[in-house]
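Reading a protein record of the kind used here takes little practice once its layout is understood. An example of such a record is reproduced below.
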Amino acid sequence: MAKDVRGISALVRRAYDDLPAYTQGEIRGQINNFPEGCFVALLDDTLVGYCASMQLPEPVVFADHDWDEISGNGYGSRHDPTGDWLYGYEMCVDPKVRGVRIGRRLYEERRALAEERDLTGIVFGGRMPHYKRHKRKVESPQDYLDQVLAGKIHDPVLRFQLANGFEPDRILENYLPEDKRSEGNAVMMVWRNPYVERDQPVKKRLPRGVEAVRVATCQLQARAVKDYAEFLKAIEYFVDVASDYESDFIVFPELFTLMLLSFEEKELSPVEAIERLSEYTPRLKTDIADFAMRYNINIIAGSHPTRMDDGDIHNVAYVCLRDGSVHEQEKIHPTPNERYWWNIKGGDSIDVIQTDCGPIGVQICYDSEFPELSRRLADEGARIIFVPFCTDSRQGYLRVRYCAQARAIENQCYVVLSGNVGNLPNVANMDIQYAQSCILTPCDFPFARDGIAAEASENVETLTISDINLADLSWARAEGTVRNLADRRFDLYRIEWDDEGKHKGRHRPRREPIGTSTAGGG
């Protein structure tokens, strides 16, 4: 379904013309966090319907909540595979295809999923869009619901949901403040699985499965090279070795292309050096992408200074996948040194990258010291975060190392570090380097005792390889000793991303679903 992200985004814009649409990152999160709970409907090869849902335990489902809290701020990140209820938090149908029962078919898919997984039932917050129109005729939202049930008031959404076998449980006040026609209210609608009889809530167990991925981190020696071809040969060597070990990923250090300055006839000023490096960008992307396909390995190509279309220089990680695609992740936070000497500017967005081993994230060095970025990647479904870094001292290295370990614990994911060692005379900022590349894990029973799957020797060029089990992350998130992602207090705090109004002083309104433009909801 990852290929449908753009289509879903366009559909939401068509269906919700009075609200900002989901970001593509939010849609990726919904799909990555529980792909089995997301469905799309196609009509003549056009995407005309979408619904998203997640499993949750009964105490969470039936506690007072609003949409932001229950949906993980739109990412579906509260999905709990041990929960015994299916909670629907998005239903969207193209208003141009009314009358062909798209909404009904999506509800049927949800019902089939609940039956297949032996879930107790389905719950969602349904709109009551005629409430504002009849507000003066009723005493309260509950009175409005009672009159709809008695047939005295017609509400198309509620009638549609009732016709599909859902029953009202209670009114959820302030569920969706942006739903002006419902004045923020919603009806908790419930369908109970007739094939399941339970007197008490049950917690499902998550099997300890195996989803093995092999990752390699290259601790690269900075060396003088005579030309671009010699540099590329050094990189190819490690790609070849990692491929021989059947690795799924290899990651190189931040600014690993600074070696290309070693064969300049004279030492360049910082501004000249960055400009010169940027000239290699097209060749580098083409050659690394070729390695990825020829050696059948996904390559996180460290980072490389690149002049952008607007003329600014950014520090960019090029991620070349073995399917031939090339992705970019800019460094969000340049260090004071990068800003001062090289005038490097920060990027504006960070999102997961879909790979054949699932969604991954990339944070370049200093970015790993900002927990908001890792949390966004985790919300979008990342289970591995790669951190290319470049540090000149043990203190600088440990800042990255300790923060990366914290990111692994708080997001219950793997974090893979790759750094430079050695030195490059006459190349600014590469006088000395310090690194101990490593593969870090959460700290819980399925993982290494000290939270380190593997690590290199300090300041020695080497390739460090380890198998990691992504299924252990799923288990830890659902049944671990601590469950950092699941236990977040969405009722108290959240992170708001300015995805729409970058640098313009505008606050991006929250995007919440309000059902289809006719019947739907949930």
